[in-house]
Design brief:
Length: 318
């Protein structure tokens, strides 16, 4: 569960390749490329398909999305040849899973970052029967009724569980977790009053918010989001609070820097296009685009944050 002592230096080394790698890959690509993504129908699959469509023509080779289970996708990518023909679009789960269960890959050693692709906040919602209309009021109520409120989440280490446990830790409140098999079931549990609080995606919650069945208090990203312009951030009440969804591209470690640079350039170029940004917004995501170094910094920061949350909350897979 602990981050390796040399995580930062090991991951940084993943960004560098010996000089021989510069020559290798100059004719890249000369055959089709596969992009691994979990799903289908999730945010990673959605992002991967837009990327695949957008980079195929500039690269002169077809990029094809291949869906695999999130529990094994990292293992498959880690074992792939580092030749630029297997790409991985993944979320924080790539680095969170090894913190809660034994995996065959080393998240710090086996991947090199290419680019951030997109982000999205989760929405912090409550059952409308709760006498609260703000994050501040919810914290006050939870402190007045310790252990009496429940929050719904899905699988261990899921974004909604991590967001809730980070909130509990920073707010100093005791809200009890109730686990569900999926977001749809968790939403039903919240609407029925079985739980009173949850954090989840706009896709899962927005229809119920609009119908008045749920009340939105805020969003989980540190900065306001154009996706939900009318909602404040949780960070306005809890400075430093930041959670949500992330989609990013990685390649197997030791992939030549020439290939990583080429992929990064094409992805950043694609994400700068207005029509592409609109596709992402329509899908509930905001495009980012970054250098490999910026993605590496994001991953390191998230690893430190989520490792502590997971340890303090005792999150694990039996």
């Amino acid at each position: 569960m602990l981050i390796p002592r040399y995580f930062v230096s090991i991951f940084s080394v993943g960004l560098m390749v010996v000089g021989a790698g510069v020559a290798y890959g100059q004719d890249y690509p000369n055959k089709p490329i596969r992009i691994l993504a979990s799903g289908p129908s999730g945010s990673n699959d959605f992002s991967a398909r837009i990327i695949a469509q957008g980079i195929s023509d500039p690269l002169g080779q077809q990029a094809v999305v291949e869906n695999r289970l999130s529990a094994v996708i990292g293992e498959i990518a880690a074992k792939a040849p580092p030749d630029g023909y297997t790409l991985l679009v993944a979320a924080d789960s790539l680095f969170v899973l090894p913190l809660i269960r034994k995996m065959s890959y080393d998240a710090a050693r086996d991947f090199s970052p290419v680019s951030l692709i997109a982000r999205a906040p989760l929405i912090f919602v409550v059952h409308p029967s709760l006498p609260v209309k703000s994050v501040k009021e919810l914290i006050a109520l939870a402190k007045a009724r310790p252990g009496e409120l429940n929050y719904g989440s899905t699988s261990p280490g899921s974004p909604n569980q991590l967001a809730a446990e980070l909130f509990k830790s920073m707010a100093g409140v005791n809200i009890v977790q109730i686990s569900y098999k999926g977001s749809g079931v968790a939403a039903i549990g919240l609407i029925s009053g079985e739980v009173q609080v949850t954090f989840d995606t706009g896709a899962s919650l927005t229809p119920h918010i609009k119908s008045g069945k749920l009340r939105a208090l805020g969003i989980t990203t540190a900065k306001p989001s154009a996706l939900f312009p009318d909602l404040p951030t949780v960070a306005e009440t809890l400075p430093g609070y930041d959670a949500g969804l992330l989609a990013a591209m990685f390649v197997p470690a030791k992939t030549p820097t020439t290939i990583i640079t080429r992929l990064n350039q094409e992805i950043v170029r694609l994400l700068s296009q207005a029509e592409v940004r609109k596709k992402f917004v329509d899908g509930g995501l905001e495009t980012v685009g970054s250098s490999p170094e910026e993605l590496a910094t994001t991953v390191k920061s998230d690893m430190v944050k989520w490792s502590k949350v997971i340890k303090d909350a005792g999150i694990r897979v039996d």
